[in-house]
Design a protein that fits this description.
This protein is mainly alpha-helical. Helices cover about 75% and strands about 0% of the residues. The longest helix is centred in the middle third of the chain and has 28 residues. The chain is globular. It comes from Collimonas arenae. This is Membrane-anchored protein.
């Protein structure tokens, strides 16, 4: 789904990428890596949930600082930040469940309300939720706040469907994938609002990616394909690196013309 910017654009460059097919592929890959990498670091590397959370939160803060400080869209920096947000969003949900005993239903509802609050505050302040108008620091702060909440919300929603409701990873992935397809259909066939369609699809890609990640990495006894967190994370990271490299090269070629 691609939205028009609308209104006048300031002299600052937009800080987020164009919404294309490659954008959605990288986004889904990043959501899957967020699920599997968090499990890999906490479990396979034995950093524990607490240690992994501190490490990833620190890396995210550094990446966010560099991203916000930058005056233009830099593919590798933007997508590195998205991957780290995905991991931290997963860890936020996991900490609430495993360490604080909060139910998946409560987490899903809480983050849904938090996201709604961010959208209301964002629109009240800027009169737009368009990602094609992220050309001020304030708008970018709203943008990343919304992104972080969508990842935490998506993690909880994916786990709620697959584990809480006992639907299993494959069924959950098909349900969320079907909902994404429905959003795509309503946007292109019925001309649904572009900004609303984008954000709904963006939210749904998180539980879809999380369900796919668990389906690939979890053991057969848990309903997965037993590919492991190491292999799954490595393959998806390589795909992300390849696509981001393609975007970087294309940006350089366009700038040279």
């Amino acid at each position: 789904m691609q939205e028009s910017a609308g209104g006048n654009i300031s002299n600052m460059l937009n800080k987020v990428p164009e919404v294309t097919f490659v954008f959605w592929i990288i986004k889904i890959m990043a959501t899957t890596v967020g699920e599997t990498a968090a499990d890999f670091l906490a479990g396979d590397l034995k950093l524990g949930l607490g240690g992994t959370s501190v490490l990833m939160a620190g890396l995210l803060l550094i990446s966010l600082f560099l991203q916000i400080r930058s005056k233009k869209y830099i593919p590798w920096l933007y997508w590195l930040t998205v991957v780290l947000v995905s991991i931290v969003g997963t860890l936020i949900s996991d900490n609430l469940v495993d360490n604080l005993g909060v139910t998946l239903q409560a987490i899903t509802m809480t983050f849904s309300l938090a996201l709604l609050f961010v959208f209301i505050a964002w629109y009240a302040s800027q009169q737009t939720l368009s990602i094609h108008a992220i050309h001020t620091t304030r708008r970018e702060m709203f943008y990343w706040a919304a992104i972080l909440i969508t990842f935490a919300l998506g993690t909880a929603a994916g786990d709620l469907a697959a584990e809480g409701l006992n639907l299993g990873y494959a069924t959950s992935a098909m349900i969320f994938g079907g909902l994404i397809g429905l959003v795509y259909f309503t946007y292109y066939v019925f001309k649904a609002n572009a900004i609303a369609a984008f954000w709904i699809a963006y939210i749904l890609t998180r539980p879809f990616g999380a369900s796919c990640g668990d389906l690939l990495s979890q053991p057969n006894a848990n309903g997965g394909l037993a590919l492991g967190t190491t292999g799954t994370s490595a393959v998806f990271l390589l795909i992300i690196l390849g696509l981001v490299g393609h975007l970087t090269l294309r940006q350089k070629v366009a700038a040279a013309r």
